[in-house]
């Protein structure tokens, strides 16, 4: 079960962090994976380590997104799986946030998702099948965090887009779903500092942070043939972080 043998997958933002965890899980399940990332050095190194192909991609470039999808179709004849994972999360309070801060977040997280998913859906429609998995977050759709109002807005927007996309493409054998990570121990999270990490551990029932591959396994399931009847849905991977009603529940 849940084999991805002979499946062609593209993972945006797959060079490191959660994206790398997704790549690892897809490879483990047997898929041929193309890592698409703006970070060329990290992308090349990850591709070598995991036996994947790397292509450079800036998801905010609509024409380039279409070109990269076209190249995959030309080389492999199909694209079975798209994991739209690219995302940024710089912090800024509402008072100090500039229009540029807001726009950059939406440009990468929302418009970038739209561009690459749009290109993939066109290819998948002609095939009559496909799996799209978007990396969103618990922040924005379920929770909030000071300093990330623009991030939360972008992640909630991704889910609004996902649900309508799922409806538009269901008749073509395509599913569109999302994974919602909680606090996953990536380099980006580590950069928030040990105080922040300890605060987060204290709010999670097992008092541990997730690993990138935890997200990858959920994405691999949604990419499988067994998940064909699941679309427009979200899977929360947060160690139960959103469950407690009070601090007492964490004792």
Description:
The protein is globular. It has a single domain (8-237), classed as Rossmann fold (3-Layer(aba) Sandwich), CATH 3.40.50.720. Strands 3-2-1-4-5-6-7 form a 7-stranded parallel β-sheet, with helices on both faces. It is an alpha/beta fold and 251 residues long. It has helices spanning 17-28, 40-50, 62-76, 99-127, 149-169, 187-190, 194-202, 212-223; strands spanning 8-12, 32-37, 53-56, 81-84, 130-135, 174-181, 234-237. Helix 1 packs across helix 8 (212-223), helix 3 packs parallel to helix 4 (99-127) and helix 4 packs parallel to helix 5 (149-169).
Characteristic terms for this protein:
single chain, 251 residues, alpha/beta, Rossmann fold, 7-stranded parallel sheet, 8 helices, 7 strands
Task: Please give a quick description of this structure.
InterPro entries: NAD(P)-bd_dom_sf, SDR_fam. The chain is of the alpha/beta class.
Layout of helices and strands, plus pairs?
Elements: E1 8-12, H1 17-28, E2 32-37, H2 40-50, E3 53-56, H3 62-76, E4 81-84, H4 99-127, E5 130-135, H5 149-169, E6 174-181, H6 187-190, H7 194-202, H8 212-223, E7 234-237
Parallel strand pairs: 1-2, 1-4, 2-3, 4-5, 5-6, 6-7
Helix pairs in contact: 1-8, 3-4, 4-5
